[in-house]
Design goal:
The chain is α/β, with parallel strands linked by helices and about 290 residues long. Helix content is about 35%, strand content about 15%. The chain has a single domain (about 15-285), classed as TIM Barrel (Alpha-Beta Barrel), CATH 3.20.20.220. The two termini are about 30 Å apart.
Amino acid sequence: MVKVTASLSKAIREPFFICDYSPPKSGVMAVNVIYPDTADFVLVNSSPGLSVRASSSMVAAYIQSNAIADTIFTIVTRDMNKLALDSLILGGSIMGLRNVVVVAGDRFRMDRNQRPSQINDYRSTDLIRSIVHLNQGIDCRGVKLDSPADICVGSVLDLSTGLDKEVSLVHKKIVAGAEYFIAQPVYEMETIDKFYELYRNRYLEDIEVPILWGIQIPDVNSISLTMFPDWVEDALNDGEDPVPVALQMYESFRRRGLTDMYIVPTIYKGGHRNYSSANMFMSAAKQI
């Protein structure tokens, strides 16, 4: 299986898309299910909305082994201790998984009697560093492995938490060994420009690690991860099709030379996602 960074480093290629995918609330992968298989990589989420779903790594291995798409699995530092997380990375490497995204995970807010325990043995930067060590053949105790892992490690960024905080966190993750980032949707190009400028001024260098900026396919009555621009809401309320509207949103990124994107499908109440419209968007965007 190819690594994300190897695909991004190709000199001549189409725009590159990673598409978010939510595992099933089931122990069975349904037949004839729609996948976002026009994406370059399918990012298998982990317990979106704090729901109980099939394991990200297991579903990623299933999708990959059935030649549906290349995959990225998600690891959440909240959910496992160091021993379990390092073991999961080695297991993923054995299964042929070559790409992971490390996230801290949302805090549990459910009733105390139902709330799982939060582990957080690792911070996200610590786990990134540990995966780098596993790739070098060293485990979390400093003990040499029989053979190293082979995992390309990525992480996330979210400008809604504040530019100053996120610039510092991205730098720490890069120093720890993050090889690429996926960003939560943001539609104000000036905010992205300010992020790059602040990083450059603070660390006296540009960010060389690829960042795939997020864009969500909009729709009426859908759940948005971040606020859509007003003109998007107006267009949808006037009955315009979501895919052409999303392509107009994408054009703002293209004008700045940002053609590689993290795609979030339309999300409806209950967690249902529209992968058909995501596929149509990605197919059309690659032809622009």
